[in-house]
Design brief:
The protein has 369 residues and is of the alpha/beta class. The protein contains 17 helices and ten strands.
């Protein structure tokens, strides 16, 4: 490689996104327009640029709970079928414009019932929006596949109902289940019946764990609940110790949980910018992703909430490339990790890896030599 990777270079790469929240990815102008349409007067700013800045500043608190408060404004304008369709369609278009070829976008249907929609109507509206967005992206020469994850809120008591909803729509675009929300005080084992139901139905699920609460959250998500993936999982580094070696230097000693996560190739859905905003990591340069990459954990790179973090998947990769000196081989490694870990059938994952991802990176490597 003759020069460091630029943001424009990275935008051309075929990328895979596993952890992106629908209500955390709205365009600021869409929030303003939808607020006017439904008469929502609670926005902290009425100009799109000012509103976008407010979301980023409010999310930069260093606390997960404060970060989550920003969603009250986006959820407030996502209460009608028309709004949900628009937001989902624009999400698919925006991701495709950023070079994403496969994405799993999650949202909590239970948060969109204030204007009388049923859970099924919410899901159908979002699926229709993604269908429209995928068609528009394909017409622009940027085909993308979007799968949906249905999320239950961990402080509520509707997880089994949402899990059943995910299974009901799994053949038409819903690829899995998730729980999200503040971790402290709401362990994943509170929702064990939902996870057991998903397992009995041979269905996939991920769990937000190890972002704000630490190793117990990760242990419960894996050993009690049977999660396929970990949403964030950044606190697994608390089970990894750096020791001074004889003659200088250092060696790494991993605890039993860290060894298990690596040995079992448990995918970690890491979101660098978001992790810094919520205090799960001190900075991009000090983000545990660097060490976990070196130790060959199944690490993936994600956006979490593009609006609150003012980011895109390309920008996340660019920040990591700048901080850790990553080149095309590293970015391809992260991308293949993500595609291997997607909640798609094996043959479809393999088709995307061999048909779009590897050829796309090979072409970029050749073009930037």
């Amino acid at each position: 490689m003759s020069h460091p990777l630029t943001l424009d270079d990275i935008r051309r790469a075929p990328k895979v996104l596993l952890h992106d929240h629908l209500d955390g990815g709205l365009r600021p102008e869409t929030v303003v327009e939808l607020a006017e349409a439904v008469g929502y007067t609670g926005l902290p700013a009425r100009h799109p640029a000012e509103l976008g800045t407010w979301f980023r500043d409010a999310a930069d608190s260093g606390a997960l709970e404060r970060y989550l408060e920003t969603f009250s404004h986006t959820v407030a304008v996502m209460q009608t079928r028309e709004a949900l369709e628009r937001v989902a369609a624009e999400c698919a278009e925006d991701l495709a414009a950023d070079g994403v070829v496969y994405a799993e976008v999650r949202y909590a249907p239970e948060l969109h019932l204030e204007q009388g929609l049923s859970l099924d109507e919410v899901v159908e509206a979002v699926l229709e929006g993604f269908r429209i967005g995928q068609e528009r992206a394909a017409a622009q020469g940027r085909p993308i596949i979007v799968g949906t994850l249905l999320t239950a809120m961990r402080h509520a008591a509707r997880s089994l109902e949402i899990a059943e909803l995910a299974v009901r729509y799994r053949d038409v675009g819903v690829v899995g289940f998730d729980i999200a929300g503040a971790e402290a005080g709401y362990p994943p084992t509170r929702h064990l019946d939902a996870f057991e139901y998903m397992s009995r139905e041979n269905a996939h699920f991920t769990i937000h764990a190890g972002e704000a609460f630490g190793l117990p959250s990760i242990w419960e998500a894996l050993q009690w609940c049977g999660a396929d993936r970990l949403g964030h999982g950044v606190r697994i580094v608390d089970d990894i110790e750096h020791l001074r070696a004889e003659g200088g230097g250092s060696e790494v000693r991993m605890g039993r949980l860290a060894n298990y996560v690596r040995d079992q190739r448990v995918p970690l859905e890491m979101c660098p910018s978001s992790n810094v905003q919520t205090g799960a990591a001190p900075s991009i340069a000090e983000h545990p992703i660097g060490m976990l990459r070196e130790l060959r954990f199944r690490v993936t790179v994600n956006t979490d909430n593009r609006l609150q973090s003012g980011t895109s998947l390309s920008e996340e990769f660019f920040k990591l490339s700048t901080a850790f000196g990553y080149g095309w081989d590293d970015l391809e490694w992260f991308t293949v990790n993500a595609m291997k870990s997607a909640f798609l059938p094996f043959d479809e994952r393999l088709s995307l890896i061999n048909g779009r991802i590897k050829p796309g990176f090979a072409q970029l490597k050749w073009a930037t030599q």
